Amino acid sequence: METLSRLVILVRDYQEALDFYCGKPGFEKFVDMKVGERRYVHVRLPSQLDVGIWLMQAEGRADRQRIGNQTAGQPVAVFYTNDLQRDYQNLSSRGEQFNVSPVKEGGAVFAHFLDLYENEFALVELPTVEGGAVPEEVGAVLCGSCLVIAGVFSSRQSVSH
Predict the structure, then answer these.
(1) Which of 15, 41, 107, 159 is least enclosed by beta carbons within 10 angstroms?
(2) Minimal CA–CA distance to 73: which of 22, 20, 122?
(3) Quick one: which H or E segment has residue 38?
(4) How far is CA 69 from the centre of its chain?
(5) Which residue ranges does the record assign to the VOC domain (predicted)?
(6) Distance between alpha carbon 132 and the CA centroid of its chain, in Å?
């Protein structure tokens, strides 16, 4: 394996999911095609072209029961930001629902927000030093129920939950 490309989110309806993801958090749709009987819909952050969310319409009763509860109440994903307060204000002004307001803990600042199905996402600003690198002593930061593991380089290398 070399890269992570998509995170799958079960949805009730493609249009309501697109309205939410392309509206409040500001994703853009980059795949919307039908192959046979299946429709493939992917959204991504405009700043990260090679990683996205595959919105998959639930099929059958078991799938529908998992909508909004794919991770049993834990965050589905962690988004990094270099300015949590800015992003918190921007998302809040678009009507985004935060279930955890910004908290500073272990040198990081984090908040959690919900999608239209109540899937939870963490938004994290890691502490940095000059040049944008994560300080070596940070290593791992506990952000609520998320353990964010940061590389000692300028990029964030992995997230564990």
Answers:
(1) 15
(2) 122
(3) strand 38-44
(4) 15
(5) 3-126
(6) 21
Name the CATH topology of 77-160: 3.30.720
Q: Is the dihedral of CA 147, 148, 151, 152 positive or negative?
A: negative
Cα gap 59→62, rounded to integer Å: 8
Sheet holding 108-114, edge to edge: 77-80, 120-125, 108-114, 97-105
pLDDT single digits (tens) 134-159: 555 555 544 554 445 444 333 333 44
| Digit-coded pLDDT (tens) for 82-105 | 999 999 999 999 999 999 999 999
Backbone angles phi, psi at 112, to 5 degrees: -120, 140
Model pTM score: 0.80
Are the CB atoms for 58 and 11 separated by under 8 Å? yes
Pairing verdict, β 108-114 and 120-125: antiparallel
Domain 6-66 has CATH 3.10.180.10: yes
CA 33, 39, 40, 44 dihedral sign is: positive
